Amino acid sequence: MVIFRNVVDGQPFQNWWDNGSNQVAFGRGNKGFIVFNNDDWSLSTTLQTGLPGGTYCDVISGDKINGNCTGIKVYVSSDGKAQFSISNSAEDPFIAIHADSKL
Fold first, then answer.
1. Per-residue CA distances from 60 to 20, 21, 72, 78, 96 (Å)
2. In the predicted model, is pLDDT for residue 84 greater than 90?
3. Is the pTM of this model over 0.90?
4. 34 CA to centre of own chain
């Protein structure tokens, strides 16, 4: 998460989303996006990330190593939207992607 913070430093908060309960997501400019699920049910939704299209490595579940991802891959479409699915029983019920985690 330190790298995430460094990549998004100084970027404005944008693309806020919440479900009115304990599922929250937001972007930091066009540099990063994070989704939290602290509810008693799974999260499954498509959100505007503000990021350029491409495949990103979730820096919570894995690492980007030699252009590959050891964790969850998130596909951002050309319009900046991505599908997020996070189980409420996941060990780490959140996903974070940023410009430097793009594959």
1. 24, 22, 9, 23, 6
2. yes
3. yes
4. 4
pLDDT above 90 covers a percentage of the chain that reads 97
pLDDT in tens, 10-58: 999 999 999 999 999 999 999 999 999 999 999 999 999 999 999 999 9
Q: Are 29 and 50 in contact, with CB atoms under 8 Å apart?
A: yes
> 2: which 2 tokens?
């330190």
Please tell me the distance from the alpha carbon of residue 97 to that of residue 1, in angstroms, as a whole number: 10
Q: What length does the chain have?
A: 103
d(CA 77, CA 49): 10
The CATH number of 2-101, from 3.30.70.270, 3.30.1380.10, 3.40.50.300, 2.60.40.1180, is 2.60.40.1180
